[in-house]
Known about the structure:
Blueprint: E1 11-15, E2 20-21, E3 24-25, H1 27-39, E4 44-47, H2 59-70, E5 78-81, H3 87-97, E6 104-107, H4 117-129, E7 135-139, H5 141-144, H6 150-157, E8 162-167, H7 170-179, E9 183-186, H8 192-197, E10 202-203, H9 212-223, H10 227-243, H11 251-259, H12 276-298
Parallel strand pairs: 1-4, 1-10, 4-5, 5-6, 6-7, 7-8, 8-9, 9-10
Antiparallel strand pairs: 2-3
Helix pairs in contact: 1-2, 3-4, 9-10, 10-12, 11-12
Amino acid sequence: MDMPAKPLFRGLWLPMVTPMRGGYVDLDAAKALARYYRNAGIAGLVLFGSTGEGNLLSIPEKIEMIEAIASDPHALPLVLGVGGVDTRGVAAAVRRLDKYAPAGYLVPPPYYLGPSQAGILWHYRQIAWATERPIILYNIPKRAGVTMTVQTMETLAALPNFGAVKECNPAVLSTLNARRTLDVLCGEDPALLDHFLTGGQGAIPAAAHVFPERFVEVMQLAREGHAEAARELFEPLRALARLLFSEPNPAPIKRALAMQGLIADELRMPMMPASRELGARLHRAMRLAPESVSRLRTA
């Protein structure tokens, strides 16, 4: 299958959680979640990132989940998160997953090691040799322990596999949107609205797990130039989004989804469930957010 040299990941791509039950991946819940987000207007799913507890899953578990979701004839396109310390191990994982023809791979720099920019370039080039699928750069210093410079991103963007970056720093988001040398996916949920108002085309927002159709509506309003309406709709979701990141991700998101009856409130150790106190605050925020949106629509 021929791939475009510079793919564009438009819309909201959800970094989906990995549902678990009794210590195993809950495949039925994963399929149901994927259908739910497709019906809400999500453009695609990103599996096995940090929100998906990807580093705690084995390759066979990942393959089972990919196959379960892809078994739906109307399945959303999938981007697969593939990260690690050892470049060769990451490349080997990519080669093994390539048979499932994902829409692309989301790849951070090697974490913990703190390589130089030259080392980061080498890492990504080796992974690019392992696949012809698109690779989305993932600039996430707080997890990787190293920051990709704009120059490094643009150097990689000149190569065929690389056309997009998930960026979490609002200032760098703004710079990349202005330079337009590669497609920029917003990875910082509070910056989502500003990203779309300034011409951004795509995002990977974890907070969109909860009330996804409202996040889609915010994006559409912003793209169409209805800035004030988009701000009013987004504002009730801000407090909820802050809560969803107030304890280690994805515990708050899983608690919120469990409250909605969509998954079990279970993570893989050493990740722990959200605290009881946060659960109570989430319950209040989830009750208030839709009420605020309803008042705005009837005002």
